[in-house]
Design goal:
Shape: globular
Strand order of the largest sheet: 1-2-3
Order of helices and strands: HEHHHHHEE
Structural class: mainly alpha
Radius of gyration: 17 Å
Strand content: 5-15%
Number of domains: 1
Helix content: 55-70%
Number of helices: 6
Largest sheet: 3 strands, antiparallel
Distance between the termini: 19 Å
């Protein structure tokens, strides 16, 4: 049972991101998501259209993972340790996933421990 304590205390990376998006402007997020999802970008002519839609979406949103670290690591030394742990564990998990040929890496299958900043891959 002890091995699974970190899983219970952790949450998916996209869950933290969605919470932050809901705090700011949820309507813009859904518009951008639908524009990218429903667009027909199958041929080369439409690649520039896809890029325009993507750049318009990027202009509307700022990175929000920084707020996770500010909320969970209140002092400068804890913040530094948390961001360093996050960076190291994400890099190690990425390298192992690449070496093993594991695809389908997205924020829905990464767990983030809010007490340490560790990233764990699920699936």
């Amino acid at each position: 049972m002890f091995e699974f304590i970190w899983v219970i205390a952790s949450d998916k990376v996209n869950t933290f991101a969605m919470r932050e998006i809901q705090k700011t402007n949820q309507e813009k997020f859904y518009y951008a998501h639908e524009a990218l999802r429903l667009g027909d970008f199958s041929d080369e002519r439409r690649k520039t259209e896809q890029l325009k839609v993507y750049m318009a979406c990027v202009a509307e949103f700022t990175p929000c993972l920084q707020f996770f670290f500010l909320e969970h690591f209140k002092t400068a030394d804890r913040w530094f340790d948390g961001t360093r742990t996050y960076t190291y564990s994400l890099a190690i998990n990425s390298m192992i996933g690449h070496l093993l040929g594991i695809g389908d890496r997205h924020t829905g299958n990464l767990l983030l421990d809010p007490s340490t900043g560790d990233v764990f891959v699920i699936e």
